[in-house]
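2024-03-11 09:14:02 DEBUG pipeline.ingest accepted 1 chain
2024-03-11 09:14:02 DEBUG pipeline.ingest length=408
2024-03-11 09:14:03 DEBUG pipeline.predict start
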Amino acid sequence: LARKPLVPFDKAYRNKPVFPIREDDSVFLSLASFREHLLADTLQYAFDNAKYPEKLFIGAVVQNCFGKVNEDGSIDASGKPCKTGRQVIGKNKKGQDQTKVSDVEIDKNGIEDFCKQDKYKKYCESGQIRVVYVHETESLGPAMARYHASKLWGGETYYVQTDSHLQFAVEWDEKYRDEFKAAKSTPKVVLSSYPPGFSPGNGNNVHESPGARLCFCETKVEDPNPIIRINTGSSYNGSEKYPTQIPFIAAGFFFTHAEFLVDVPFDPFIPWCFMGEEIALSMRAWTHGWDIYAPRKNLIAHQYRPGRMGLPKFWGTVGRLYGRPGMNTKLQGSVIKRIKNMAGYPDATLEKIREEKIEFIMEDLEHYSLGDKRSRDDYLKFSGISVDKKHDALQCERIVWCNQGTKE
């Protein structure tokens, strides 16, 4: 898939935008959705709360269970052809969760539900909603879905990547535009954060609160495929005149200028990856000369989803597809070394990759890798990351300047 239709398209537009970038303050919202029951709600909240909804454009990759796939490729949507995630149904004698997977009807089509409402139909008819449908068995994880969503961009000024279960503050679009322009490195600015959570029944509008800086990272060596994870540090106190820099980009929310797509094109060679895309985005953006900032206010809220909710996950589908639970972890184990090689992990040098006979994971990496404006070593120093040769990992230190907000 990557080698035949995807890379040739990328090559044709390498170092230039697919469309001329319109400087009209339009916003493109990239949504990667996996069997998402809140997709229609997310779209409604985004348009209802935008100051300029006529300038908002959506690119959604909808990965749903559309039914049972027959041998001839047709889909049978009758009955209950789909599966839930692991639902907690009680406790066993040891007090541990007991789970089960149930048969269910086909997933809601959030795009259809949104577009059939009279209030929103005009946005669909005017071409502001662009969508790619993927049957769940063909899902290759969030990083690939975000790659495909980026191809739905149509020349809008700003590029925004989010998850598909969100709420939005009033005039969120204009407020993020203003925050982007307030950052001292504009226009090569990326705003990013982990938004606060919301729960159903708590209202539909986001209460604006001080933003938190992404100042923390760690490698959990007990993970099946250990790689750096990022997290929040200190929050703004509300008196800051300008947003301040941070070293990390969250894949679940960032706001930037569309020129970002030229410098940091999405990588089509990281299927099945769940962890790893954030450190890859962060390092690639920074070494291409983009400065990363934490927005001073939270203008979106995210529904965080513990496993006990029983919602389907793409790795569960991969396990059923191959008849092997945990298969996604195994598949990811090789692919993630593409990211680890780029990041400088001792266990993912080119020599070690060749020893494992998985050189194929390095294909075209030079086009989806670090930039030449700043070096990898400079990034590691900037973000407080050092090499832990004992555990073949990268280790994180406390990033004082980030928590104190001293870099504007």
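2024-03-11 09:14:41 DEBUG pipeline.report The first strand starts at residue 27 and ends at 34.
2024-03-11 09:14:41 DEBUG pipeline.predict end
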